[in-house]
């Protein structure tokens, strides 16, 4: 049974098209939808719309449903359209008239927005934990191998002396930058839209502040139109953060593909982290690093998709917003897995001191020579020319 009035049977093709992937995607949001519904019921009790007994019946059934959903015992059927309908139909079937009261004071629009915000908040906390874990892993790698000198590169050519520690600590700083961006993204998401209805408020005296507090939001997103207009903007901000995390992992993966080339061999990755070739018996390939590198572009495309979906629309809700759920959910899954793989690699990654030392050839020290002349009072540009002429004679 659908939540909207249906005086004529909907064309099956239209029904399938408009439902899209919601029956699958909403499985991941069911526990958050149940949580929001439990808190909504408590608010309705405080406002005298539900009795204590009715609220308890609803809460018990919602907790049972949530537990079933997390253990694979509850599924959204295609005829339900989405998770919200599946939940309400279950409450109607089990509780009758009491189940019909749960939708008082809300719309599917603020219902999905609340579930998504709760999901994103949880996922962001997991990302934060993974970022800190990776920082610790890179630091341990740096502490072990950091003093080993290695060439620094510009234009993919030897440039100046560097070290394993300088390279590794650059990643650490980048990940701390991501943690700073994380704070801004989390603060933006940490606003409760529940009670904003379809985007124009609810003609009923409800306590939005109570719902926000019980759900763990720091504040209410007050203007109901703003709640709907934030679709695409808030998700886009989160995806922007996830994109920057993947940018840093992309850079690291690119470096490791290069530094582990047999011709360079500055670092070694264990054999059990490399794949083989179907035709070349000698090959050992860094496929995990290449996929890690490629995933940056996938997450970046999700950000563009979400931001473009929300553009060009007038204020208020549009069904286009339904298409934002998939890129957000998939991006979190990619970033969570990528951070895990990056941590796995750093736990096993080794520097090869001999290969690093052998690569520290004379051209890396030309800048140092020029500055020794500068310290003797020679203008930098003249010192530069002197060193360049000396180096060119040696070539």
Oligomer: single chain
Number of domains: 3
Average of pLDDT: 93
Radius of gyration: 28 Å
Order of helices and strands: HHHHHHEEHEHEHHEHHEHHH
Shape: elongated
Distance between the termini: 81 Å
Strand order of the largest sheet: 1-2
Task: Please provide a written account of the structure.
The protein is mainly alpha-helical. The protein folds into three domains: 12-101, Fumarase C, Chain B, domain 1 (Orthogonal Bundle), CATH 1.10.275; 110-149 and 162-204 and 223-352, Fumarase C, Chain A, domain 2 (Up-down Bundle); 362-394, no CATH class. 62% of the residues lie in helices and 5% in strands. It is built from 15 helices and six strands. The protein has helices spanning 12-19, 22-25, 30-46, 52-70, 83-95, 108-145, 164-189, 208-215, 224-229, 233-259, 287-309, 325-348, 353-358, 366-375, 380-394, and strands spanning 149-154, 157-163, 191-192, 219-220, 267-268, 350-351. Helix 8 links the parallel strand 3 (191-192) and strand 4 (219-220). Helix 14 packs across helix 15. The longest helix has 38 residues, at 108-145. The model has no long low-confidence stretch (mean pLDDT 93).
């Amino acid at each position: 049974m659908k939540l909207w009035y249906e005086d004529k049977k909907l064309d099956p093709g239209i029904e399938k098209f408009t439902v899209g992937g919601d029956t699958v995607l909403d499985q991941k949001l069911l526990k958050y939808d149940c949580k929001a519904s439990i808190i909504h019921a408590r608010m309705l009790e405080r406002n005298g719309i539900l009795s204590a007994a009715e609220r308890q019946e609803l809460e018990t059934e919602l907790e049972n449903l949530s537990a079933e959903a997390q253990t694979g015992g509850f599924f959204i059927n295609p005829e339900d359209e989405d998770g919200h309908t599946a939940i309400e139909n279950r409450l109607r079937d089990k509780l009758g008239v009491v189940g019909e009261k749960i939708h008082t004071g809300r719309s599917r629009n603020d219902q999905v927005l609340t579930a998504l915000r709760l999901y994103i908040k949880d996922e962001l906390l997991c990302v934060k934990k993974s970022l800190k874990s990776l920082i610790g892993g890179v630091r341990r790698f740096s502490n072990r191998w950091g003093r080993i000198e290695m060439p620094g590169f510009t234009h993919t050519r030897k440039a100046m002396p560097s070290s394993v520690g300088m390279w590794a600590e650059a990643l650490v700083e980048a990940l701390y930058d991501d943690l700073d961006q994380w704070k801004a993204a989390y603060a933006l998401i940490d606003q409760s839209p529940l009670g904003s209805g379809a985007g124009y408020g609810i003609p009923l005296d409800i306590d939005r502040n109570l719902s926000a507090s019980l759900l763990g939001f720091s504040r209410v997103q007050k203007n109901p139109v703003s709640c709907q207009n934030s679709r695409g903007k808030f998700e886009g901000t989160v995806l922007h953060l996830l994109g920057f995390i993947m940018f840093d992992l992309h850079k690291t993966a690119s470096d490791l593909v290069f530094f582990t080339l047999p011709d360079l061999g500055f670092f070694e990755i264990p054999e059990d982290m490399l794949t083989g070739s179907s035709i070349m018996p000698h090959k050992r390939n860094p496929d995990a690093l290449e996929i890690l590198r490629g995933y940056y572009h996938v997450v970046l495309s999700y950000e563009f998709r979400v931001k473009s979906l929300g553009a060009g629309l007038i204020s208020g809700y549009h069904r286009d917003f339904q298409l934002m759920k998939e890129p957000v959910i998939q991006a979190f899954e990619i970033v969570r897995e990528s951070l895990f793989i990056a941590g796995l690699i750093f736990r096993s990654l080794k520097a090869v001191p001999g290969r690093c030392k052998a690569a520290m050839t004379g051209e890396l020290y030309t800048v140092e020579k020029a500055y020794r002349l500068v310290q003797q009072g020679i203008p930098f540009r003249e010192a530069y020319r002197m060193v360049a002429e000396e180096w060119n004679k040696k070539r």
